[in-house]
Amino acid sequence: MKGIKRNSLILVLVSVLSVIVFSLTALAQTEININKNNIIRIGGDVTIAPKQKVENAHAIGGDVTIGEGARVTQTAIAVDGDVILEKGARVDGDVYAVGGEIIAATGATIGGASGTALDSGRWGTYGYRRRGIGNFFRYLFHTGFHILNVAVVTIIGVILLLWRPNFLLNLAANVREYPLQCGLWGLGGLFAVILLIIFLAVSLVGIPLLPLVGLAVTVAFVLGNMGIALWVGQRILTRRERTTMQEFLIGMLILGLIGLIPVLGGLMSSVVNIFGLGALITWLLSKRRTRSVV
Questions:
Q1: SS3 string of 65-81?
Q2: Which helix (H) or strand (E) holds 192?
Q3: Which of 216, 247, 254, 292 is the most exposed place for a label (fewest CB within 10 A)?
Q4: Could you tell me if 83 and 103 are in contact, meaning their C-beta atoms sit under 8 angstroms apart?
Q5: What is the pLDDT of residue 44?
Q6: Cα separation values, 28 from 23, 120, 168, Å
Q7: Which phi-psi region, left, alpha or beta, contains residue 70 (left: φ > 0; alpha: ψ -120 to 50)?
Q8: What angle do CA 97, 183, 245 make, to 5 degrees?
Q9: Cα separation of 64 and 48, whole Å?
Q10: pLDDT tens digits, residue range 69-121?
Q11: Beta bridge partners of 66
């Protein structure tokens, strides 16, 4: 009876997460304009028309494209996307791409600093765009990055299991015992990160901190995904002679195969990221409470 109730909670939570994912997709059609010269888009691309002049152009979960002859007088920032400067485009201030790259055509100029961070492809094969290649070759490109990501995370997970096995075991236990709590903490953490990125993006002082935030979020997602992989392996391997390493490897294999499925793999990876982040937050909070009691 207890198991049925827990599974029902998980099903409800997954449904809620799916609705939220589609709601975030709808946000891609909405731009935030500050003084009509500062454009921020969440979950979509920002495009500055040719010859247009704005102060700031920021995209969270999309690309920033500065058209031919267009000008950005302050900053152009893309988080989980690319910054694209077409011929004759100009940015007087800084240009940053977190989880993407800076693509500048001939004659484009950047007046301030520029840099990229975490340009290693996204988890899964969904949504990653490269210019000048067809859908089939794009999928192959996605697949190559995805396989590389899974291999790197698997190696890190094996090292972590050999070094601190209890860490991933605790994350998997949190997902197994407190699925609803992990989901809610994951959602809360995700929205907190989005709000933090928006705050830093509109603040000149906070712009240099964006790469550090991106790195911290990536590390959190990777650790959370490893915990989810171990939990999946525990659910698949029910024999008593199984080992923790076998469970983790099987879980990573399953998550990796799911990530290869177009569209559905992206949605499932988003759910995995949310649950993994929530499991990590739950573990951190429980560890803090334990220290307080001691």
A1: EECCCCEEEEEEEEECC
A2: helix 179-201
A3: 292
A4: yes
A5: 75
A6: 9, 23, 35
A7: beta
A8: 85
A9: 8
A10: 999 998 888 877 889 999 999 999 888 887 678 888 888 999 888 777 655 44
A11: 48, 85
